[in-house]
Specification:
Elements lengths: L2 H11 L6 E3 L8 E7 L18 E12 L3 H15 L3 E5 L2 E7 L5 E5 L5 E12 L2
Parallel strand pairs: 1-2
Antiparallel strand pairs: 2-3, 3-7, 4-5, 5-7, 6-7
Length: 131
């Protein structure tokens, strides 16, 4: 599973303002979303019996909600994004079966950018069927 699949799924499920990007955002846009792969550390996840017995994997992504100069609208959009993942089980994202999504306790406010646009992040963990 790749962040591009998460991006495309989000694009189908919600308004993305002036766009949705992977690994970046358009800093000149008033309203957009960015999907970033989170840094991973630790050992690889391999079940007993080796890779052939490992049926699931995990993707951890951060969704940056870069959403206008109204804190109320930015928070509402971040909550909408969070809600898309809250309680999500057994769905298809870009051809991959996602068994479980965990968006954490809620959107995290990260302040304003240099142009005064409010930003929030939603950190999501996806458990998906390994192909």
């Amino acid at each position: 599973m790749r962040t591009e699949q998460v991006k495309n799924w989000l694009k189908e499920k919600t308004s993305v303002g002036q766009g949705i990007y992977v690994g970046t955002i358009d800093g000149n846009a008033e309203k957009c979303l960015g999907v970033y792969l989170q840094k991973r550390s630790g050992p690889a996840r391999i079940c007993l019996g080796g890779p052939s017995q490992t049926k699931t994997d995990e993707l951890q992504a951060t969704i940056l909600v870069h959403w206008g100069k109204s804190s109320v609208q930015a928070e509402a959009k971040a909550c909408d994004i969070w809600q898309l993942f809250y309680g999500l089980t057994d769905t298809i994202m870009g051809g991959t079966r996602v068994y479980y999504a965990d968006p954490g306790a809620g959107p995290i406010p990260v302040g304003r950018d240099e142009r005064g646009v409010f930003e929030y992040v939603v950190n999501v963990r996806l458990i998906y069927k390994k192909e």
